[in-house]
Write a structure and sequence with these properties.
Its EC number is 2.7.1.-. By secondary structure, the protein is mainly α. Helices cover 61% and strands 0% of the residues. The longest helix is centred in the first third of the chain and has 15 residues.
Length: 62
């Protein structure tokens, strides 16, 4: 997760974890790991571009 809210407000982390627990149940939510990611949006954009470039050489219609 990227963002100052998550990074600078520990109470928000607890609220977020509580919401995940409520939505998924305590047993399943143990498998969900929420961590702060520096430049997460930049990394996500790079992953999207890389995934899209794989199909760039294929024609749009067949």
């Amino acid at each position: 997760m990227d963002g100052g809210l998550y990074e600078h407000y520990p109470q928000y982390r607890k609220y977020l974890q509580d919401a995940v627990d409520e939505l998924l149940g305590s047993e399943i939510s143990k498998n969900v790991i929420i961590e702060h990611s520096k430049d997460g949006s930049g990394i996500g954009a790079a992953q999207l571009a890389a995934a899209n470039s794989k199909y760039a050489s294929k024609p749009l219609t067949e």
